[in-house]
Amino acid sequence: MISPALPELPDGVTVTALRDLAVRLATAAGALVREGRPDRVVVAATKSSEVDPVTVMDRASEELLREMIAAERPDDAILGEEGDDVAGTSGLTWVLDPIDGTVNYLYGVASWAVSVAVVAGPPEPASWTVLAGCVHSVADGRTWSAGLGEGATRDGVPVRVGAAASLGTSLVGTGFGYDAARRAHQAQVLTQVLPKIRDIRRLGSAAIDLCLLADGSIDLYYERGLNPWDMAAGAVVATEAGAVVTGLRGGPAGNAMTVAGPPELVAQLSEILEAADADGARSPEIG
Ligand code: IPD
Ligand code: CA
What is the pLDDT of residues 130-154, one digit of tens each? Predict the structure, then answer.
């Protein structure tokens, strides 16, 4: 995919410097969360439903990220999963997921990450331009990052999306929301997708899923219900690795649907998802 045009940046700011900061932020928060993980992680609170947990370390990680941003880029805005929005004056917003894959973190399953991105424009996927992002998979140390127009790397090595021969031989990542009715609908959609692909992976972190797509570890990814912080960093890593990241029916990627992968396979998968009403366009009552 061709990178979007680079918006005008505040004086003295470069994409490279923003990317470096995203990496420093994500790895510092990752170290905090790794070292602070108790033997038995407990749920501090629940959010959208009783299966949508927050732990003490989700909050501590986001606090550290906010402190570091306030110290280094005090004029930037902040949109984080676990805290109040902070307004800024620079036109840039940091989009933070302090632990993406909280359920995995809770259970000790290795797929969870700190995800940090910086965007220009309104901080929502339909209208932002993601300038840089980093996804740090804390359990194994893998670190993906990208800057707009700079390409994407994993641990400093450039990555590219894979080239599955066909939809039928594609390994497809996806995820499910926290609401029961939404999940029932997602399960129905899956019955339309699964017979037409190699297999599904539900690994539990949208940020990591998008990075696995970027480095060719999976062939395609789709999910309904992503929040801006689930996808901001992963989306720039994926697009800079050659993926398209889009919605259905010609719309942009976002909460209704995010589909990512090589253009031809995304088109084929999107057709199935549209027919299955995967974005809920024909069933708004499901939410
Ligand atoms: C969740 C993960 C999961 C995805 C959910 C997200 P969280 O984020 O990314 O893979 O399926 O849609 O909400 O709650 O662990 O930060
Ligand atoms: Ca998340």
Answer: 999 999 999 999 999 999 999 999 9
Fold of 15-158: Fructose-1,6-Bisphosphatase; Chain A, domain 1 (3.30.540)
Q: Are 129 and 7 in contact (CB under 8 A)?
A: yes
What is the whole-number distance in angstroms between the Cα of residue 205 and the centre of ligand 2? 7
**Tokens representing residue 33 in the block:** 């969360």
User: And the tokens for 248?
Assistant: 């259905």
What CATH number belongs to 167-286? 3.40.190.80
Helix, strand or coil, per DSSP, at residue 272: helix
pTM (global) more than 0.70? yes
Q: How large is the average pLDDT for residues 153-162? A: 97
Closest to 20 in 3D by CA, of 92, 97, 116: 116
CB 200 within 8 A of CB 172: yes
Is-contact 102 84, C-beta < 8 A?
no
What's the residue count for the chain?
287
Choose the residue to mutate in 230, 231, 258 for probing ligand 1, maximizing ligand atoms within 8 Å of C-beta. Answer: 230
The tally of CA atoms less than 13 A away on the side-chain side of residue 146 is 31
